[in-house]
Specification:
The complex is a heterodimer. Chain A is 35% helix and 21% strand. Chain A is an alpha/beta fold. Chain A folds into 2 domains: 172 residues, Rossmann fold (3-Layer(aba) Sandwich); 75 residues, no CATH class. Chain A is globular, with a radius of gyration of 19 Å. The termini of chain A are far apart. By secondary structure, chain B is mainly α. Chain B has 2 domains: 223 residues, MetI-like (MetI-like fold); 242 residues, MetI-like (MetI-like fold, Orthogonal Bundle). In chain B, α17 crosses α19. The C terminus of chain B is likely disordered. Classes of the chains: A alpha/beta, B mainly alpha. The interface between A and B is large, with 43 and 39 residues.
Chain lengths: 260, 556
């Protein structure tokens, strides 16, 4: 009965070729609904590549990706429906600078909207109420809806990007180093928000390079030089064991770099 | 009330991706008008023409003459281009306010030279060619000079604008430290100027090839002449031999220029930044040195002797000018025709490029077909397209506008694609990853940041089209252009002078207008609030002030 509900994300022996060394080598990972997984590892370990494989941006050179038990469709409407269930919080946010906050939020609905609504969104404020509620949920002033994204501060932009992600209503949330450029207070707040969004039926996979922020996650996955080094359920693992794994992960990398 | 005003403001502010599609609305009246203009006489000829594309003539005789013609055209283009660069660089420095100011402490001579240069610039190279042809007789040097003079004046303007738009902090620092003005100018302004110059220079070479072909169509030698003759004798298979050869040459040239641009890290025509050239300096110098003997060899092969340019042939004695007949020309109709032609062609070119890109977005193969079509549009001289259109359309403004529009669509489309490769692709990817369709991802993600620079470029392109409108004059009833060609062939010098002046005045007026529009578009794009559209990733701060700042007037 374990596999009655297929995992939201299933990576099976994924490899991605790189220029010199493979960017990912034989990585397998399974994320069930309700799981909040932290992906840790030194820079260059392949965290962003793993997330790009998970959201379908990169096609692996070997191995299989399955979203809710289905392989990625080749294209067309089916693929779009699959993509709509995967939301990504990009490291560089990838907001559309020229458009207003509201238009950017509604861009999260483009998977479901037909041409007429997509065009109207460029001309008129659409779904204002839903957008306002989202901003309030993320502790942003609803008056920001009319502002161009480029007029916002760094913290506000991060939240708008998260709001767009939520507007998409995905099941699988992927976040690539979302805390990297934030001050400690903002980082903690954002992390809390993301963790609260990652409850069932959703799931969260978040890449981090700060092992001090692991509280609240259900699992921690370590990645080094393109390989998974550990996959620990935080509830069953003692702090000491986790600390040992982390020290190995980062220490090993330090040795690796020293050798180069 | 406020809501309505708010919506209006939002429309102006945020409908950016839709602006680029707005000019395509011109298709509607055009589509309504076309059935009335079609005479349907020559559809079978058009069909034969299209079929012949698949079976070009491989007769050695034909191929030999195609290769010979192509050689002359490329040679003319190369020499004209080199001449225009030398001329443009010297005149550009001579008309730079910054240079005059730091060397001699005054600016007005720069302004004066700039004004003087406006005149040769405003006359299309075809007119230069035809006028010089009357003075010097048929020789390859005519086409070379006809390209070098107006292109030189264009390059001069671009160079001086680029110099004057560079940040002056470095120059001031050197000057206050006591270095001599020439050394300070060279050190402070040279390095940031070089990549822009190289990028522009490469682009001018492509323009020169197109112009050399065009001049050939009007009888100044080379492949263009063959193309026109084969078209007029309906020898489509021979025509396509020449076209394919030209296409291969042009695509190869564009590929080389693009590769060099990338290698030497030069900025794009619009969108995308660039890094100052540094370590490739030696390579650059070597390339430049290698070019010199090549140019000499080409000139020798074409049989160009500079002293031939001094032997003016005796003109037939000009009859006394008849100003009354000049005044009696239907000026309002001529001007209106030219302006309508320009507006139609510009709207077609500017609007259709993004629209077509949007339509083919889901299918890579369709996009390749589109690129092929655009390449044909670029290389196919507009007068030949116009002649071809006459098989099925009545002569007039619409036929001329379609021909010019198709040509410029090829140019704008390529630039748009090139810019789209650098701007907004991350945002588009993000949208696709979130499940939006390829068309909407392109519209939202890429057309948003590209809208302003693209339209600014389109405004400038409209001015080029105005100047170019003379080349489709031969399909008749297109306004000033056709009248001008008529005056030229009937040796009506008085009319000719008046028409050239009218053209120049119109072009300069258009240039001023498009400059203003461009400045508005690009200055608003550079308000601190609204992001510069030139970044590839929103988070990366544009660090190179020279590249996206001063709006380099991309003339050509």
């Amino acid at each position: 009965m374990v596999n009655a509900i297929p995992a939201l994300l299933e990576l099976e022996s994924i490899s991605v070729d790189g220029r010199q060394a493979p960017r990912l080598a034989d990585v397998s990972l399974r994320i069930e609904a309700g799981e909040r997984v932290a992906l840790v590892g030194p820079s260059g370990a392949g965290k962003s590549t793993l997330l790009a494989v998970a959201n379908g941006l990169i096609r692996p050179s070997a191995g299989a990706v399955r979203w809710q038990g289905e392989p990625p469709a080749g294209g067309g409407r089916r693929r779009r429906r699959q993509q709509a269930r995967i939301g990504t919080l990009w490291q560089d946010l990838r907001l559309i600078e020229e458009l207003s906050v509201q238009q950017n939020l509604n861009a999260g609905r483009l998977a479901h909207w037909g041409w007429p609504r997509a065009l109207l969104n460029l001309l008129l404020p659409m779904d204002t109420q839903a957008c306002q509620q989202l901003l309030q949920r993320l502790d942003l002033d609803p008056a920001l809806l009319n502002q161009p994204v480029s007029a916002l501060s760094g913290g506000q932009r991060q939240r708008v990007a998260l709001a767009r992600l939520l507007r998409q209503e995905p099941l699988l949330l992927l976040a690539d180093e979302p805390l990297a450029s934030l001050d400690p207070r903002l980082a903690a707040e954002l992390l809390e928000l993301l963790l609260s969004q990652g409850k069932a039926p959703r799931a969260l996979l978040l890449s981090l390079h700060r092992p001090d922020l692991l509280q609240g996650f259900d699992r921690v996955v370590g990645l080094r030089a393109g390989r998974l080094t550990f996959d620990l359920a935080l509830g069953d693992t003692s702090d000491a064991a986790l600390a040992r794994s982390l020290a190995e992960l980062y220490g090993g990398a330090a040795r690796l770099e020293a050798r180069r | 009330m406020t809501a309505a005003r708010g919506a209006g403001a939002a429309l102006r502010r945020f409908a950016a991706p839709l602006w680029v599609l707005l000019p395509a609305l011109v298709l509607l009246p055009l589509a309504l008008r076309l059935p009335a203009l079609a005479h349907g006489g020559g559809w079978d000829l058009v069909g034969q023409f299209a079929l012949a594309a698949l079976q070009p003539s491989l007769d050695p005789l034909v191929l030999g003459s195609v290769m010979g013609g192509l050689g002359i055209t490329v040679g003319i283009a190369l020499l004209g281009w080199a001449g225009s660069l030398v001329l443009g660089l010297l005149l550009g420095i001579a008309s730079s306010r910054v240079v005059w100011n730091s060397m001699w402490g005054r600016r007005w001579p720069a302004e004066l030279i700039r004004r003087l240069l406006a005149m040769p610039r405003s006359v299309h190279e075809l007119l230069w060619g035809l006028l010089l042809l009357q003075l010097l007789g048929l020789q390859p040097a005519v086409a070379v000079v006809a390209i070098a003079v107006p292109f030189g004046a264009l390059v001069a303007r671009v160079v001086s604008d680029q110099i004057d738009n560079l940040p002056l902090g470095g120059l001031e620092a050197l000057r206050t430290a006591g270095s001599s003005p020439p050394a300070a100018l060279l050190t402070a302004l040279g390095p940031p100027l070089l990549p822009q110059l190289l990028s522009y220079g490469g682009y001018r070479l492509e323009c020169a090839l197109r112009s050399a072909t065009l001049l050939g169509v009007f009888g100044l030698g080379g492949l263009g002449t063959e193309l026109r003759l084969t078209l007029q004798s309906l020898a489509f298979r021979e025509l396509w031999s020449g076209l394919w050869a030209l296409l291969v040459t042009m695509l190869a040239l564009e590929a080389v220029v693009t590769a060099l641009r990338r290698r030497w890290a030069m900025p794009l025509r619009f969108g995308g930044g660039g890094n100052p050239v540094g370590r490739q300096g030696q390579e650059l110098l070597l390339t430049g040195l290698a070019l010199l003997p090549l140019l000499v060899a080409v000139a020798w092969a074409l049989g160009i002797h500079p002293n031939q340019l001094l032997q003016w042939q005796g003109l037939p004695p000009a009859p006394p000018p008849d100003w009354e007949s000049v005044l009696a020309l239907p000026w309002p109709r001529l001007l209106a025709g030219t302006l309508l032609l320009t507006a139609l062609a510009a709207a077609l070119a500017v609007g259709c490029a993004p629209l077509l890109l949007l339509l083919v977005a889901p299918w890579p193969w369709a996009r390749l077909c589109l690129q092929g079509l655009w390449a044909l549009g670029r290389l196919w001289p507009p007068p030949l397209t116009a002649l071809l259109l006459l098989f099925v359309l009545e002569p007039g403004v619409v036929a001329g506008a379609l021909a010019l529009g198709f040509h410029n669509l090829g140019i704008l489309g390529r630039l748009l694609l090139e810019a789209a490769g650098h701007t907004g692709s991350a945002a588009r990817q993000a949208l696709v990853a979130g499940g939006s369709g390829p068309r909407m991802a392109l519209l939202y993600g890429q057309f948003s940041p590209l809208a302003r620079p693209y339209l600014a470029y389109g405004a400038y392109r409209a001015d080029v089209i105005l100047r170019e409108s003379v080349v489709v004059g031969l399909v008749g009833a297109t306004g000033l252009g056709s009248q001008l060609l008529e005056a030229l062939s009937s040796f009506a010098w008085d009319q000719l002078a008046a028409l050239v002046l009218a053209y120049a005045a119109l072009t300069l007026l258009g240039e001023d207008l498009s400059d203003r529009l461009r400045r508005r578009l690009s200055s608003r794009a550079q308000l601190p609030g609204l992001t510069p559209a030139f970044r590839s990733a929103p988070e990366s701060v544009a660090s190179d002030p020279a590249a996206p700042a001063g709006p380099p007037p991309e003339l050509g």
